[in-house]
Amino acid sequence: MTMTELPASLLRTLPGTYYTDPAVFAAEQERIFEQMWFCAVRGSDIATPGAFRTVRVGRESVLVTRNAAGAARAFLNICRHRGAQLCADDSGSVRRTFRCTYHAWAYDLDGKLVAAPNLVKMPDIDRVEYGLNAVHVREWLGYVWVCLAATAPSFTETVQGACEQRLGDLASVERYGIENLTVGRRIRYDVRANWKLIIENFMECYHCATIHPELVHVLPEFAGGYAAQYYVGHGAEFGPDVEGFTVDGSAGTAPIAGIDASQDRRYYAVTIRPQVFLNLVPDHVILHRMYPLAADRTVVECDWLYPHEVVAEGRDLSRSVELFDRVNRQDFDACERCQPGMASRAYAGGGVLVPSEHHIAGFHDWLRTRLAG
Ligand code: FES
Ligand code: FE
């Protein structure tokens, strides 16, 4: 579809209750976040056997760790004895076992029950049967993705497929070697807004000219308001006076080896439903993970990833980090300004989508289908 073929009639958004009603949020947790692949942690956050992070996925706390062989493992963070939360900390490290602080049941790094006081007097306890509840795990792009569904959807079709559809082929993302990049900076944003406002904002660029002066300077075509994400394979080109993807358009750091000449001086944005935004620029990659916590609260963890040597040599990353940190704050401020409006009678029937935002209607169709399923 070209810009001249955009639909003439305006489309309506979701009604306000979709952004405020705890029942809608509960349905989203059950039918979206607990069913789909969820990008949980950066692999380097659990660099060694026994290192762990706990993250919220839907209604569950999930414990993500590495076993003795170095393979990622993920479990529901619940002791099988009486249901105590197994790990209370957000992150940490154990030597060989996770030990419950209530009655001291201990589980190895593969989730098997390996010790329990007086277990010899309870021969009927099957140590595998009463091991931790494992969830599906995949590592891709250097991130650990988990899925809580009994049968996980195809990772190839859903996660990798989203990149393929957006960029035209999977090689266009794999060339960046994201799994080998190093986290140069991580910022965690606690956003008082529904996760869908954040996704909708990320998908459109109608707001760019108003709230993102620095981004529009670097990517002048964003002033037109058309979302680069809609056009398959399109990357927004840097302005002629721009040297790098930095807050003032000055030069960035060394480009990532292996990217294609066509990817130089361009910015690509990909939405991987339901909770990942991926941004590709020549010298770094920015990956956002959303953790929806309530109908009106979403934590966003954003990683700036660079070639290892760029971080190891202590290169100045401040100007490249500052660009998207500003963009994030500008976006999240806008989302927080909309959140109270979702509960207003003025928005009971929803709002409208102007033509340049019409692909957001596709997101709404997808959401309705998931919730009905
Ligand atoms: Fe964990 Fe009893 S609840 S050992
Ligand atoms: Fe924005």
UniProtKB/TrEMBL annotation:
Pfam family, any one: Rieske
A GO molecular-function descriptor: 2 iron, 2 sulfur cluster binding
This protein's record includes keyword Iron-sulfur: yes
InterPro entries per record: Rieske_2Fe-2S (IPR017941), Rieske_2Fe-2S_sf (IPR036922), Ring_hydroxy_dOase_asu_C_dom (IPR015879), Rng_hydr_dOase-A (IPR001663)
Residue span(s) of domain Rieske: 39-146
Gene3D superfamilies (alphabetical): Naphthalene 1,2-dioxygenase Alpha Subunit, Chain A, domain 1 (3.90.380.10), Rieske [2Fe-2S] iron-sulphur domain (2.102.10.10)
Cofactor requirement: Fe cation
UniProtKB keywords: 2Fe-2S, Iron, Iron-sulfur, Metal-binding, Oxidoreductase
PANTHER family, per the entry: CHOLINE MONOOXYGENASE, CHLOROPLASTIC
Name of this protein: (2Fe-2S) ferredoxin
Source organism: Actinoplanes auranticolor
